[in-house]
Amino acid sequence: MALFDITLSGNSPDDIAHIIQVSLAPAFVLTALAQMLNVFSTRLARIADKVNTTAKELDKADATEARHLSRQLSFLRRRSFLLDVAVVMACLSAVMILGSILTLFVGALRDAAAASVLFACFGAGLIFTVCALSAFLTEILLAGRGIRVEVDRQQDHVSTTRE
Q1: Is beta strand 2-3 parallel, antiparallel or unpaired with respect to 6-7?
Q2: Which candidate, 149, 156, 144, places its Cα nearest to that of 72?
Q3: pLDDT tens profile 104-140
Q4: In whole angstroms, how large is the CA radius of gyration of the chain?
Q5: Which phi and psi angles does 61 have, rounded to 5°?
Q6: 6 — alpha (psi -120 to 50), left (phi > 0) or beta?
Q7: What is the DSSP string of 55-124?
Q8: What are phi and psi of 111, to 5 degrees?
Q9: Can you tell me the distance from the alpha carbon of 72 to that of 101, in angstroms, rounded to the nearest whole number?
Q10: How many CA atoms lie within 13 A of 127 on its CB side?
Q11: In angstroms, rounded to a whole number, what is the distance separating the alpha carbons of residues 33 and 41?
Q12: 8 Å CB contact between 35 and 90
């Protein structure tokens, strides 16, 4: 079978070693995806902590502060949604990359031309990775914007109370 410009004639140890070598590249991508998912889950936990704190403050707030806290909760909700999208995309990417590895092995076992499925799975995995990173980037930008808005609000509050 012709696989990545190398002809495999049966299942000799050299052929199997080559298949394993070819499958290592997707395995490294899976390692990177696992690290991304770790970052995503850490950020999601921080958002959850902020939501809990904000919800407790909302119970004791006056009307003006309650409006601000309500907006903050809406903002945190959007951030958590974007992280959800990033997690889903990263997981779909991992599934597609695993599918490409599986296709590589099944194709070698069946001695069939599985290159188109292999490339489709790996390509889809890369596309999902790009989508996950895009959602994560958007969430990061929202987080930075939220910090700036909160700093401005606190500065306005301090300048108002000093006058």
Answers
A1: antiparallel
A2: 149
A3: 766 766 655 566 777 777 778 878 888 998 898 898 8
A4: 24
A5: -85, 155
A6: beta
A7: HHHHHH--HHHHHHHHHHHHHHHHHHHHHHHHHHHHHHHHHHHHHHHHHHHHHHHHT---HHHHHHHHHH
A8: 55, 40
A9: 43
A10: 7
A11: 12
A12: no
| Euclidean distance between CA atoms 25 and 29, whole angstroms | 7
Host H or E run for residue 2:
strand 2-3
Q: Exposure pattern of 15-53 as b/e (b: 16+ CB <10 Å)?
A: beebbeebeeebeebbeebeebbeebeebbeebeebbee
Amino acid at residue number 7: T
Residue 83 burial (CB count, 10 A): 22
Residue type at 4 in one-letter notation: F
DSSP state of 6: E
For 54-113, the pLDDT digits (tens) are 888 888 888 888 888 888 888 888 898 898 899 989 988 888 888 887 777 667 666 555
